[in-house]
Amino acid sequence: MLLERILEEAFPESGAARLQRVGLFTLIYLMQSGEHAVTAARLAAMTGQDDANIARQVKKLIDLGLVERTQIVNKQGRGRAYKLTIKQNGKTKRLAKAIDKATSGRK
Questions:
Q1: Residues 6+ apart with CB under 8 A from 99
Q2: Cβ pair 69, 39 in contact under 8 A
Q3: Partners of 80 in the β-ladder
Q4: What distance in Å separates the CA atoms of residue 32 and residue 68, rounded to the nearest whole number?
Q5: Under DSSP, is residue 95 helix (H, G, I), strand (E, B) or coil?
Q6: What is the DSSP letter of 71?
Q7: Domains and their CATH numbers in the chain
Q8: pLDDT below 70 — which residues of the chain?
Q9: What is the pLDDT of residues 61-85, one digit of tens each?
């Protein structure tokens, strides 16, 4: 199956770790086109996961070359935060295409 091969290539881990990272990657991908920046704090609030767990998962996605962080001003305008976006490379393009295909039928 094509999707399985793409996932194994992008997420070379055990099933549980792969599932966590695929889910987080998908959230970042789908949320990044919205009006608000995708941050670890926003992901933690949305998923109910603690900040430390999200930070570990995001770091793994960064290490795998799938996500990048860009420093931005936080929503209060006083401090710093990091905006998360999907990197544009061969792995992410295949994953994005699979996500787009899977979500194209929803309304």
A1: 26, 29, 30
A2: no
A3: 73
A4: 12
A5: helix
A6: E
A7: 2-103 (1.10.10.10)
A8: 1-3, 6, 105-107
A9: 999 999 999 999 877 777 888 999 9
- State how far the Cα of 100 lies from the Cα of 6, in Å rounded to an integer: 14
65 phi-psi bin (left φ>0, alpha ψ -120 to 50, beta other): left
Q: How many residues does the chain have?
A: 107
- Is pTM beyond 0.90? Reply is no
* Of 91, 96, 97, 99, residue with least CA distance to 11: 91
Contact yes or no for 51/38 (Cβ under 8 A): no
User: In the 8-state DSSP scheme, what is residue 105?
Assistant: T
CA-nearest of 36, 47, 45 to 85 is 36
Alpha helices in the chain (DSSP H): 2-10, 15-31, 40-47, 51-63, 90-103
Torsion angle, CA of 63/56/25/15, rounded to 10 degrees? 90
